[in-house]
Amino acid sequence: MRVQFPKAGVPFVLTMSALAASSVVQAQPADPSITVNGVATPDPAAMTPGPEVKGIISARNGDRIQVATADGQRQIVTLGETTQVKAGGGLFGGKQKFTTAALVTGLPVTIKTQQWSGGLVASQVTFRNGDMKTASMIHNGTNQRFEEQTAATEALRGRLGDIDKYNIKSTTNVYFDTGRYNLSPEAKANLCSAATQADQTDNALMLVVGYTDSVGGDEYNQTLSDKRAGAVMNYLQQACHWKPYRMLTPTGMAKADPAASNDTPEGKAQNRRVSVNVLVSKSVDGM
Predict the structure, then answer these.
(1) What's the CATH code of the domain at 65?
(2) Is the pLDDT of residue 198 over 80?
(3) N or C: which end of the chain has fewer CB within 10 A?
(4) 270 is in which domain, residue-wise?
């Protein structure tokens, strides 16, 4: 904080409340007016309750985190001085307290929020103790930015060598209604079944690819296929407990590579899909 005093002999008035509210204060000769630069931290008592945000931290920039939710959305939440950070699932089921520094990319979290004009502010963030090790691996192995999804692709490249060459062990398709990217109960069950089976394969990775039918424009279908792939990826990690570092960055392919003809309703239904491919690098698989 910087205070500029007037020349000797010229009176000025500066209140303590003004000092507390500003980061730069200028006193004008013979005038108690004050110029304040910057935005004051919002008072928690003046904010309204916000929605609960549940997902995986996909990026962080200072005191702002980006959370990828199960429906494929990205939510920005600000961390404040009053934000409580707790971890559950310990030996006695208690909640251990942490600082906001523990909130790294790749960590599944549940966030209680408050709303103000600048967006959402976290009042409490909780996560499971068992997820911290996985998140640390992703955080240390990934050069993340706010514009990128959290992924361990580069770390996997270094670990597996020629990561572009795989053996496909299995493929599971889940299907969507027209224009939608939410998962049906059947799709959720199939995804967790695929994850359980894939977990029995050593060094298995997952590649999630989203598709659409031919209805709609190219830009619309690209966005829709991305959202479908993101929703499947998030559900696999959050509900099926597939480790994020064993998943490649999801891809949306829009209406490319149709599984059936788009000339019939039945064919279009088969094309509105996400393919979950279980892969093993040939360099690891020995082929």
Answers:
(1) 2.40.50.140
(2) yes
(3) N
(4) 153-285
Distance CA 226, CA 89 (A): 33
Nearest to 278 by CA among 185, 184, 182, 200: 200
Burial class from Cβ neighbours inside 10 Å (0-12, 13-18, 19+) for residue 136 reads middle
Measured in whole angstroms, the distance separating CA 171 from the mean position of its chain's CA atoms is 25
CB 62 within 8 A of CB 76: no
Digit-coded pLDDT (tens) for 242-275: 988 888 878 888 998 899 999 999 999 999 999 9
CA angle 196, 210, 260 (to 5 degrees): 105
Q: Which of 50, 151, 49, 55 is nearest to 103 (CA)?
A: 55
Rounded Cα–Cα distance for residues 105 and 125 (Å): 14
Q: Which residues are bridge partners to 86 per DSSP?
A: 97, 126
Token pair listed for 218: 């190219």
User: What would the DSSP string read from start to end of 182-204?
Assistant: PPPHHHHHHHHHHHHHHTTSTT-
> Bigger pLDDT: 199 or 143?
199
Query: Are 114 and 66 in the same domain?
Result: yes
Q: Which of 236, 262, 266, 269 is nearest to 250 (CA)?
A: 236
Q: Is residue 14 part of a domain?
A: yes
Entry pTM: 0.49
